[in-house]
Design brief:
The chain is of the alpha+beta class and 783 residues long. The chain has three domains: 54-261, no CATH class; 277-320 and 375-445 and 654-781, no CATH class; 457-651, no CATH class. Helix content is 49%, strand content 18%. Strands 1, 2, 3, 4, 5, 6, 7, 8, 9, 10, 11, 12, 13 and 14 form a 14-stranded mixed β-sheet that branches. β24 (569-572) and β25 form a beta hairpin. The longest helix has 38 residues, at 322-359. The two termini are 38 Å apart.
Length: 783
């Protein structure tokens, strides 16, 4: 019986080829999209979850209570980890790290050859909390020595062309420091959110950087003992920093380490989304695309019921029960779904390299059998969903009525079919509107005047002799052809800088706690970055007193309540300084955040980076000269000169990827919807060919016939537009609310989305309408 049913399924596929191909293309496209999204979502979900004691590993957060609200920071004092381990018995291990995301790449070499690589400072218990396997060396002793370094297998192969026998060998860091290799760790898995290439002992960081209770510049992780209550632990550590310094406004809390990647946004001290929003968004898109594909199957199957009703009548007349018919029609749907799965897997295999490029992932089609099993289950559910309504509908025909020829489409059937078409196009229109809004917001972000000019500006970090001979290097750099101006600064401007609440001014309310962005700069920085002075002047070598001067932005002046701030004295980090200038507002952060108070101070000796403005034109030759100068003054180094506008783009990587993916998925949703519309239009035209032929014989024009066939579908799409636009407004408004600076939703966005959907529907239906209008009526009237 099963063999007989299988044979009938393939016969029906062959008999209704057009319907079969439309359903196959729609379902395979839907499954391919769902598989790609599923691979991406799974990778996001598994990020940082590869540790055996995941539930006990906590990231300690600092909640800074400020006048504007609570700001949650991932960074805490560098001395906190050791103190927590000593003072709280529920802490089994504690570790302090300085991750690569907050530091530039530095040069590491063998003495004869050097490489730029990402480094991590980590304290001794690192491998007890994060047990990444070592290929060589002991996890307990690897970070014990002050001059210890651990290399990844990939970096070890680059440097020594082997991973064996390297323990005890020396390496050079930043061309001046000697370290000893104490271990080789296996390459990190792709689901590590902060990858790195080598690890340095945290003792080096303690030695080189200002580490104290009021300097929040590292990340602290703890692993609680089994059975310890996280909520109780959070209450105990909340005011812990106040026991060390009485003037702090920081309260501590924790978040599970594996949750930080997806749940990294906080509003006023409360967790408020993060990348999880995009995971939810694309999961919904995958579900909706599968629904659209399934709706095509439902609509076409019920629409063509009249072609199969005699088959149903005969089967029922000779004793076939409704259950066996449901099984047959569900079998058709499930069989089609699994054929579509095979097509989808081929499509995903071919598209995966491109998808990996867009998403910056290393996804593999079948990384594990669990995922493959999920795809099979998803296909089965899709088949059952798509075939459920047609199976129940077809199997419910009354055989007597069918064999007498008394079959007519019910009003309920027509309404269901029309409702499904409206649902399909509503989803497609929401996606079209989302693509328009995302595109316009990203264009706004990229073209918005951020208060500085990042075009033709490059930056690079100083290390080794280049840092020690900074004045000579800057003098020679400014003399290079193609370099308009150059200066020093701490950080790379767009992402690495400091913050402080240690700013006091006359008349300040003692209860006020305001965070300032602060950055040490050199002469010429304001001019190089294209910042505009609102009052006063920038730092100058002609004024020796500038070492005790500061420059603030307009927001800072407003926060201080100073109408004429130039010349006023304020206190910065306990020292009396004078405001020499006010710079116009600028935004080095993302447009997700509002402009904050800012303060520049003059400490050229603290500068870690160089910024240079290049003359337009042959920038490639200018960069080559800069790299040659770096190699000359810093022998053995590997220059890494970065354009600031490229760095600016990285800040919006998530939004750019969402924009690209939304565009493709919206396009696929529209194509699948149009496939269903095409099938329904073709079937409608086929059923009405005798009517159309009689109308033509009686003088009906081709235009009237095209209108006749298109009008019903146009009404359905118009209803879909009316349903989709309010939903689209709500979705896009919520997304835009995540930006402090955003576009306003314009009426023409909605009109454009509606018109685009209508035009696509008209082209789809119109092709069949024109074909029907041009058919010779004799062909159908002679039968």
């Amino acid at each position: 019986m099963f063999r007989h049913s299988l044979l009938l399924i393939f016969r029906n596929f062959r008999k209704f080829r057009t319907t079969f191909l439309i359903n196959l293309i729609g379902l395979s496209s839907g499954l391919a999209c769902a598989m790609l999204i599923c691979l991406w979502v799974t990778d996001e979900w598994r990020m940082d979850k590869n540790f055996p004691h995941d539930a006990r590993i906590l990231h300690v957060l600092g909640n800074h209570h400020q006048t504007a609200g609570i700001k949650t920071s991932l960074h805490t004092p560098g001395v906190l980890a050791e103190a927590l381990k000593q003072d709280f018995p529920e802490v089994e291990y504690a570790v302090a790290t300085r991750p690569p995301g907050t530091m530039p790449k530095f040069t590491i070499g063998t003495g004869t050859e050097s490489f730029k690589a990402r480094h991590l400072f980590a304290s001794q218990d690192y491998f007890r909390i994060f047990p990444f396997p070592l290929a060589d060396g002991s996890p307990e002793k690897a970070l014990a020595g002050k001059e210890s370094v651990l290399l990844s297998e990939s970096l070890a192969r680059k440097m020594f062309h082997t991973t064996e026998g390297l323990i005890g060998k020396p390496v050079t860091w930043q061309q001046k420091r000697q370290f000893t290799i104490r271990g080789i760790f296996k390459d990190l898995p792709p689901n590590v959110s902060e990858p790195y290439d080598y690890i340095l002992s945290y003792d080096i960081f303690l030695k080189d950087f200002n580490v104290h209770w009021d300097n929040h510049n590292v990340m602290t992780f703890v692993m609680l003992k089994p059975g310890a209550d996280v909520a109780v632990f959070n209450k105990k550590i909340a005011d812990y920093i106040k026991t060390k310094i009485d003037f702090t406004s920081v309260k501590l809390s924790t978040q599970r380490h594996s949750e930080n990647y997806l749940y990294g946004n906080f509003t006023n001290g409360v967790q408020d989304g993060g990348r999880i929003e995009y995971v939810r968004l694309f999961s919904l898109i995958a579900i909706f695309i599968l629904l659209i594909a399934s709706i095509n199957f439902m609509n076409l199957s019920t629409a063509r019921a009249s072609r199969r009703m005699k088959e149903v009548g005969v089967k029922k007349a000779i004793g076939a029960g409704q259950g066996s018919l449901v099984f047959q029609y569900l079998g058709e749907s499930v069989m089609l779904s699994f054929i579509s799965l095979l097509v989808a897997m081929v499509a995903v295999y071919l598209l995966l390299p491109f998808f990996n490029t867009v998403t910056a992932k290393q996804l593999v089609l079948f990384a594990d059998m669990q995922l493959f099993g999920f795809f099979v289950l998803l296909t089965l559910l899709t088949g059952l969903l798509a075939g459920s309504y047609p199976a129940l509908y077809l199997s419910g025909f009354r055989p007597v009525a069918i064999l007498k020829g008394h079959f007519t489409s019910s009003l309920r059937e027509l309404w269901v079919r029309k409702g499904l078409v409206v649902f399909q196009f509503s989803i497609s229109i929401v996606l079209i509107l989302a693509v328009i809004v995302v595109f316009m917001q990203l264009r706004y972000v990229q073209n918005k005047n951020m208060g500085y000019n990042r075009e033709n500006v490059v930056y690079f970090f100083k290390e080794g002799p280049m840092r020690e001979e900074s004045r000579l290097f800057m003098q020679r750099l400014r003399e290079l052809p193609g370099v308009v101006s150059a200066s020093n600064a701490t950080g790379n401007v767009t992402s690495h800088w400091g913050t402080t609440t240690g700013v006091e001014w006359p008349g300040k309310d003692k209860a006020m706690n305001v965070e300032f962005g602060c950055q040490s700069i050199d002469v010429g920085f304001i001019e190089t970055m294209g910042l505009q002075m609102a009052q006063g002047r920038s730092f100058s070598a002609s004024f020796p007193t500038d070492s005790s001067g500061v420059i603030i932005n307009e927001v800072a002046a407003a926060q201080m309540g100073l109408a004429d701030p130039v010349g006023k004295e304020i206190t910065f980090w306990g020292e009396q300084v004078k405001i020499i200038g006010v710079v116009k507002n600028f935004n080095f952060k993302t447009v997700h955040k509002a402009i904050t108070p800012w303060l520049y101070y003059f400490r050229p000796d603290q500068a870690t980076a160089v910024v240079a403005r290049l003359s337009p034109g042959d920038t490639k030759a200018t960069i080559a000269r800069i790299e040659a100068l770096i190699r000359e003054m810093n022998p053995g180094s590997v220059p890494e000169v970065t354009f600031m506008d490229a760095d600016f783009q990285k800040v919006y990587e998530s939004e750019l990827r969402v924009g690209v993916l939304s565009k493709y998925f919206a396009g696929i949703a529209i194509i699948i919807s149009c496939l269903g519309l095409f099938g329904l239009a073709a079937f409608t035209a086929e059923r009405r060919m005798k009517e159309i032929s009689i109308r033509k014989v009686l003088g009906g024009s081709g235009a009237h016939i095209i209108y006749l066939l298109s009008a019903d579908f146009t009404k359905l799409v118009m209803v879909a537009v009316c349903v989709a636009l309010p939903v689209g407004y709500w979705v896009t408004r919520n997304w835009l609310n995540t930006f402090a600076y955003r576009i306003e939703l314009q009426w023409w966005y909605f009109v454009m989305a509606g018109i685009f959907a209508l035009v696509i529907a008209w082209l789809t239906v119109g092709s069949q309408a024109v074909k029907a209008a041009r058919t010779n009526p004799v062909r159908h009237l002679k039968d």
